[in-house]
Amino acid sequence: MHRKLEKVYYEIRRPRTTWGDIGGCAEAKTTLRQMVCLPLTRPADVNRMGLVPPAAILLWGPLGTGLAMLPEACATEAGVGYVYVSGREILGKPEALIETLREAEREAPAVLYISDLDWLAPQPGATYAWGPEGNERGKPPAFADREMTDTFLRELDRLQAATAGRLAIIGGTYRIDVVDQALIKDKSRFNRKVFLPPPDLAGRRAVLGIYANRKPNDGQLDLDAVAALTEGYVGWDLENVVKKAALRAIEDDRLEITQADLVAAVPLVKAWLTPDMTAGYARIFAADCPHHYNF
């Protein structure tokens, strides 16, 4: 890690997140360890086996499922610096984008995570509707213009050529089907993908365990039962359930959360995912090319 630098639209620092901070995502963690950590920590062995590391990785899935945490955990395991670029915050700032990606080059070896690729490189004419009823939950309020997208593509190509093998580039999006295909179809850009599906029962149980165990509790929590009540909830929804349970305990002059607190908190939090969104993610993933998900 060469230095620490923070601005509204990017951040350079020593990573803090570990795999243990992220509930569930077992398959994604395994894949990222292979695609990101091994090429950074054992490049000679990867080369000796005749393996070509990904040019860049597109991490996609619902918001609140670990999109931002997983790349940082990769940097922690690999023992390298972490560079974060906010796609939404850098909109309309092409000069800042150029500056940011050149800062990332100077930080190599590192993990570079660029969020919100659907904001930064939108597919012309794409629809955000999840189904015939017009649900557009999560649609960005603004998109990059063509000039901004072209600047990003040009700087990405330059960065990859300058840092091959020394900078692991990960892009994040919650809607892979609305990202400019120039980012995906060109094999020299984001040529590998990792899907984070909506949290299943086991995944929700794991997330609840992380947040509930950080709060004083009576030791009688049945998190499997709470997880069964939270279909459609993502990480931040589950975090809010635990927070509301803690508030309920305080209001009752107690300093430990109980099972009753958690159960009472569930209906107070609206699930981020709707049934058509969950079905949409399954449909998009099923229709995608499976070869992009292998090393």
How is this structure best described in words?
There is one protein chain. With 295 residues, this protein is of the alpha/beta class. It folds into two domains: 5-198, P-loop containing nucleotide triphosphate hydrolases (Rossmann fold, 3-Layer(aba) Sandwich), CATH 3.40.50.300; 201-268, Orthogonal Bundle (Helicase, Ruva Protein, domain 3), CATH 1.10.8.60. 42% of the residues lie in helices and 11% in strands. It is built from eleven helices and seven strands. Strands 1-2-4-5-6-3-7 form a seven-stranded mixed β-sheet, with helices on both faces. Helix 4 (94-107) links the parallel strand 4 and strand 5. Helix 4 packs parallel to helix 6 (146-163) and helix 7 (201-212) packs across helix 9 (235-251). The longest helix has 18 residues, at 146-163. The protein starts with a strand and ends in an 8-residue tail after the last helix. 42% of the residues are buried.
Give a nutshell description of this structure:
The protein has 11 helices and 7 strands. It has helices spanning 26-41, 43-48, 69-78, 94-107, 117-120, 146-163, 201-212, 223-228, 235-251, 259-265, 275-287, and strands at 5-6, 10-13, 57-60, 81-85, 110-114, 167-173, 192-195.
